[in-house]
Amino acid sequence: MGVMDREAGTSALERRVREQEQELAELRARLAEWEAAFRRIPQREAGFTTVSGTEIAPLYTPLDRPSDAEYVEKIGFPGEFPFTRGPYTTMYRTRLWTMRQFAGFGTSEQTNRRYKYLLDHGQTGLSVAFDFPTLMGYDSDHPRSLGEVGKCGVAISSLADMETLFDGIPLDEVSVSMTINGPAIILFCFYVVAAEKQGVSPEKLRGTVQNDILKEYQAQHAWIYPPEPALKLIIDMFEWASKHAPKYNPISISGYHIREAGATAAQELAFTLRNGFEYVERGIARGLDVDDFAPRLSFFFDVHNDFFEEIAKFRAARRIWAKRMRDVYGARKDESLRLRTHAQTAGVTLVAQQPENNIIRVAYQALAAVLGGTQSLHTNSMDETLALPTEKAVRIALRTQQILAYETGVANTIDPLAGSYFVEALTDDLERRAEEIFAEIDALGGVVPGIEKGYFQREIARSAERQQREIENGERIVVGVNAFTGGNEDSDIEILKIGEEAEIRQRERLAELRARRDGARVEATLERLREAARRDENVVEPMLECVRAYCTLYEIRRALEDIYGAYREPVFF
Fold it and tell me: What is the Cα–Cα distance from 282 to 280, expressed in whole angstroms?
């Protein structure tokens, strides 16, 4: 190109810049006129804010979205950095999101029947809900399990229970998600060996174990060991899975329970991603190559009622993750930069009054998750605020996703709200607020010091209190609760009741198991596990040996507790 051509090109560019500046100046002037007229007209008495408290302007314009020059950097294309528009190039045009229903109750036999029912009705993945004793690492016959066995999920105390849970369900074909944290590594080992018994190698397993202990200290409290050994167990799983189960996600970094405890969307976004970065840092400190384990890190977000804020949250999460993984942690593979997420509609938004209205809430939340680009979705059942869901309620929840996928057309194009002045402004705002929260956590010394100082717990409690106060004062409407309450007296629906039979059956099964297993082998494998923990070695292989010997959940938990100790939460004021 000659000098004259370059000068002509520069002149044309300068003219276009001046024209754009003039167009924006005219737009600002027109907007000021419109706003002046707008302010003269009375408005509804309502709080025009998001659930997180962000003030919402009455109108958004091109002044609120990224400039054309920023498009590639901030929005880009699906499947390309910074992944704002989605982690995959073709998104739902190639494959719809995985449709999961969180299910589990009573014994493994009962839940196995429910799983087969769900698969027969079109569900494409399973999601295991465990009962409270299992979540805390207790066997069904432990004194602390009394009265709780099978009540809020399925009771799993040994490999034998896990084998029954998936009897007749091919684990090389069905993706399985397990919601378990404190004893996650033990349940994961049960699952791996149950697959072994089916002739399925770990290399073929697909799915996720939640295994996010940091959010337990912050929000849900289902912990066993102190933070440092608990984090060590998670990195053991990263290391083992990267070599032996490359299709399996050894963690689902979860904002869901943080949000359910009362956090705002901005807090859920920031706390979840900062926890994720903590796990990345721990993996790197172990000596693992970030590109060896980061591609299997997955996320789990809540989908609350504020429709547009929830969509923007998913988009902001992908952008923040991609930037930090590349620029801070040196990840090179696209697979390490892609934030992949499961989503679940917000259990905390379900109400007992007029429970049929929960179907409508769930449908809107599911739509937000899909427009936000989730890879997997669970829709809550209308009766979950009252009891475990009935088969009818579960079927309606699943049909909600199927109608969304096959009748609405929302899966036909990728990220259809990209470029929306409002959605792009919300995405930018959530990214900015997340960065501010990251700075607060870093100033405390990181995630673990933040937990020890009560930072996360206090921030979540304050947000929960504010939101509850708004509902009680009528500042935020909840249909059927603080407004439009007519018909509450007609809200009787069938609920599922779990009796004591599950506990009786589990006690019998455990007694039979202990009578027939090789006691000497049990003790030997447990001692090898203690020794591996004592030497700070990776404990997955010795734990698999314990499982193969039919050691129980609590026996394995206790063996590690002998070395690591138990966590007691400090009292915060």
Answer: 5
Helix (H, G, I), strand (E, B) or coil at 315: helix
CA distance 350 to 384: 8
Which is nearest to 308 in space by CA: 258, 272, 265, 352?
265
Number of Cβ within 10 Å of residue 12's Cβ equals 10
Q: How far apart are CA 573 and CA 570, in angstroms?
A: 10
Q: Indicate the residue type of 307.
A: F
Residues in Cβ contact with 359 at an 8 Å cutoff, skipping those fewer than 6 apart = 382, 396, 397, 400
Number of other CB atoms surrounding residue 243 within 10 Å: 12
Is the distance from CB of 315 to CB of 84 less than 8 angstroms? yes
Residue whose tokens read 């996010």: 212
Question: CA quadruple 87, 83, 308, 207: dihedral positive or negative?
Answer: positive
Residue 337, amino acid:
L
Overall size of the chain counted in residues: 573
User: Residues 551, 212: contact at Cβ < 8 Å?
Assistant: no
Contact 506, 149 (CB under 8 A): yes
pLDDT tens per residue across span 372-383: 999 999 999 999
Instruction: Order across the sheet with 297-303: list the strands.
Output: 248-249, 207-209, 175-179, 125-129, 98-103, 376-378, 341-345, 297-303, 251-254
Q: How many helices (H) and strands (E) does the chain have?
A: 22, 9
Q: Is 48 exposed, middle or buried (0-12, 13-18, 19+ CB in 10 A)?
A: exposed
What pLDDT is recorded for position 361? 98
Instruction: Using DSSP bridges, classify how beta strands 248-249 and 251-254 pair: parallel, antiparallel or unpaired.
Output: unpaired
Which pair of tokens denotes residue 486?
């007519």
Cis omega (within 30 of 0) for bond into 82: yes
> Are 135 and 223 spatial neighbours (Cβ–Cβ below 8 Å)?
no
pLDDT tens-digit series, residues 31-74: 999 999 999 999 887 778 888 888 899 999 988 888 777 888 89
DSSP 152-172: SSB---SHHHHHHHTTT--TT
Q: Which of 330, 339, 266 is nearest to 304 (CA)?
A: 266
Q: Measured between alpha carbons, how far is 139 from 137 in angstroms, rounded to an integer?
A: 7
Q: What is the amino acid identity at position 55? A: E
